[in-house]
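Support request, priority: normal
Reporter: lab tech (M.K.)
Component: structure prediction queue

Hi team, I submitted a job for ArsR family transcriptional regulator from Bacillus weihaiensis yesterday, and the status page still shows it as pending. I've pasted the exact input below so you can check whether something in the sequence is tripping the parser. The sequence length should be 207 residues. Please let me know if I need to resubmit or if it's stuck on your end.
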Amino acid sequence: MKPMFTLSNYAQLKALSDPLRAEIMIRLIEKSYTGQQLSEIFGLSRAKIHYHLKELEKNELIEIVKKEEKNGIIQKFYRSVARGFTPSSQLLPQIGDVSETSRQLLLQLNDRTRNAILSASEHAFQLEQASEEPSNWSYVGATWHFSAKEEHFKKWIKKYHSLMKEFSEMTKNDQPDEPDSKMYYLSTMAFQVEEPLIEELKSEKEE
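Reply from support: The job had stalled in the queue. We restarted it manually and it finished. Here are the results:
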């Protein structure tokens, strides 16, 4: 799976702007599923799920990664072609559709993060010791609001992706079945808002 896929045409953009397809895509970024499995997850008919899978496959956003035979029926497992999606420069004139596609993907990612928090064990949120040192924490949960120039925000994004690439390289040989290895769920969102949402930041701006 590629880290990033560039949407090159309007059909791809529209395919991702549909809320249900956006939710399907988030699932298929996480792991591969058959149409039947997705039908059970969403409580929808196989025909409806199959239609949306075909639309996503037709637009080269998902692909079949394996096939298995079960009870004489060939099951196809679908997976997203990338972990993230970005529009090409030629799609920027359709800024409204680009924005809506991004919004839908973030909304579905937010829902999946919420579900992951609710399904995590109590141990995931237990602190082994009281400490103000972040390296001693067993989980991270924070909301930050900044007033920043766009160029500074973009520099932060670049550093963030560089850090995640470094972390991925650091952990590439860590196997889930190792005694000291644990599974972690990381979810990050950052986007522009119209006004400060944290009271302290509002007060600073007014002074």
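The chain is about 45% helix and 10% strand. The beta strands are 5-7, 62-70, 73-80, 85-87. Let us know if anything else looks off. Ticket resolved.
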